[in-house]
Amino acid sequence: MSLCLAGFAFTGSSLANQQEEEHQWSVTMVAMEQVCNKTNPGLNGDVENAMASDPKIDEAKKSQVRKIKSDPSYKLEVASITSTILKSPLAAMAQDMCKEYAPK
């Protein structure tokens, strides 16, 4: 799942420093929750479920994702990534990831 999210986050962008890459990854995690819930009504997907299903996500990354999800100052950034994913050819591939966001 992490590899796919990296592809969504960095498609069409230039190389960025590690801190920016981690930020974009976190924003994309939150955006994917919205993508999954918009394209699968009734899913009630949550980024917490996705993070719990991936043992490679450490507590620092989880903390960053939670901050982005809860802080209104990131709302427009998340909305932009959500829109980009929904309009891209990657949207179909995103559907495969939505099962990770579903309640367990």
The low-confidence runs, each spanning 5 or more residues with pLDDT under 50, are: 10-15
Which outline best applies? globular
Strand content: under 5%
Could you describe the largest sheet, including whether it forms a barrel?
none
How much helix, percentage-wise, in residues? over 70%
Q: Would you tell me the structural class of the helices and strands?
A: mainly alpha
Q: Roughly how many Å is the radius of gyration?
A: 13 Å
**Overall mean pLDDT score?**
86
Spell out the helices and strands N to C: HHHHHH
List keywords for this structure.
6 helices; mainly alpha
Provide structural commentary.
With 104 residues, the chain is mainly α. The protein has a domain at 1-9 and 46-104. Helix content is 71%, strand content 0%. The chain contains six helices and no strands. α2 crosses α6 (90-101). The chain is globular, with a radius of gyration of 13 Å. It starts with a helix and ends with a helix. Residues 10-15 have low confidence and may be disordered.
